Amino acid sequence: MCISLFMISSYDHSGSKLAVSRFLSKKMERRQNSRRQSAVKVYLSWPGQESQCCRVKNLSATGAFIEVGALRIPEDRIIKLAFVLPINSLIKIHRLSAIVVHRSHQGLGLMFQQV
Fold it and tell me: Where is the PilZ domain (predicted)?
């Protein structure tokens, strides 16, 4: 979501400034694409570590949030992803690279490279 100066300065002058302050206090969304809930398996790998199976919590065209449990993967680390996609009676593997853009106790926020 972007805040335009027009939106900030064009509130109803007969009303209060409260509506503008409520608008500005909303959490700012930085994602360019909306995310969808998911339960897809993904295997994470990076140099010096064995591949680890994790679950994708949400996914967009440019990134994902991955539940990683106790894995300790630092921010700014480039990791390899192998998505396991069941399609009818087949299993398709889709490979991507991503960078860890944030961490929390719930998992990792990833931004895909070269989508």
Answer: 29-113
